[in-house]
Amino acid sequence: MPMVQAENVSHRFGEADGGLLALDGVSFSVEVGEFISIVGPSGCGKSTLLRIIAGLRAPTSGHVILDDRRVQGPSDGIGIVFQSPALMPWRTVLGNIELPVEVKGLGTTAYRQAALQLIALVGLKGFEGNYPFELSGGMQQRVALCRALICDPPVILMDEPFGALDALTREQMNLELQRIWLERKKTIVFVTHSIPEAVFLSDRVLVMTSRPGIIRSTVPVRFPRPRTLGAFQDVEFWRVADRIRRDLTQGQGGMSEAVVDSPE
């Protein structure tokens, strides 16, 4: 069985004048340990779809299966990383990472070693006692990633987590995320506006249409891992990126809002 399976998922906001149809019959699956990215124009329902998978929003019709169980609300089997780190400013790095443990009443003592291991894993050893205002944007997102991993969920959902970072930091975070994924063997669903980022990180890229969002195509990415930043200079890399761009712009009469950088 796939780890995640969306079956004919639709979502409509509001009821006046028929409401706003954001998603229309979305179906796809994600295998255990697979890394997939979802790209699409702004407003196509990417974030809504991620929240439905997480159990934070109920679909109007259709359903999601997580590890052979139907999603009917928030699940311990999912960790989420949003675009904003959303760290508690009065809590230290360690305190922010341990927050889900406290909320679930699991007892921080049992998870303290796991938290410290995660801090070391993302390169933040020595910053355990620092507060968010003392950290760079990239460091804050590393804390948010640790917080998502602390309870060891099999699935991680990431909603444009690096969108607010500068280009160099974003590249480094892509490398870090790939390394952590290879070490931890998590199933990851990653939403991004950056086509190169999607190609670099993913096993497959799902391309969505404008609202109401559907899956227009699935583009496989077959480059060997681990991938280095040198992949961005590979001609085949940009062939895959161009295929995604063409699928994104099909029938739109122009560029979508996805970011399509190319080497000089």
Q: What's the CATH H-level superfamily name of the largest domain? A: P-loop containing nucleotide triphosphate hydrolases
Give the overall pLDDT as a whole number.
89
What name does CATH use for the topology of the largest domain? Rossmann fold
Name the beta content range. 15-25%
Biggest sheet: strands, sense, closure? Answer: 6 strands, mixed
* Number of helical segments with 4 or more residues: 8
Query: Segments where pLDDT lies below 50 for 5+ residues?
Result: 253-264
Supply the helix-strand structural class: alpha/beta
State the separation between the terminal residues, measured CA to CA: 43 Å
Estimate nothing, just give the exact number of structural domains: 2
Q: Give me the count of strands.
A: 10
In CATH, what is the class of the largest domain?
A: Alpha Beta
Helix and strand element order: EEEHEEEHHHHEHEHEEH
Q: Choose one word for the global shape.
A: globular
Widest sheet, order of strands: 6-7-8-3-9-10
What is the CA-atom radius of gyration, in angstroms?
18 Å
Helical percentage: 25-40%
Please identify, by name, the CATH architecture of the largest domain. 3-Layer(aba) Sandwich
Tell me what the structure shows:
The chain is an alpha/beta fold and 264 residues long. It folds into two domains: 1-43 and 56-77 and 153-264, P-loop containing nucleotide triphosphate hydrolases (Rossmann fold, 3-Layer(aba) Sandwich), CATH 3.40.50.300; 86-152, no CATH class. The chain has helices at 46-54, 93-97, 99-103, 108-121, 137-149, 167-184, 195-201, 235-249, and strands spanning 4-13, 20-30, 35-39, 61-66, 69-70, 78-81, 155-159, 187-191, 204-208, 215-220. The strands form two sheets. Strands 6-7-8-3-9-10 form a six-stranded mixed sheet, with helices on both faces. A four-stranded antiparallel sheet has the order 2-1-4-5, with helices on one face. A hairpin with a 6-residue loop joins β9 and β10 (215-220). α7 packs across α8 (235-249). The longest helix has 18 residues, at 167-184. The chain starts with a strand and ends in a 15-residue tail after the last helix.
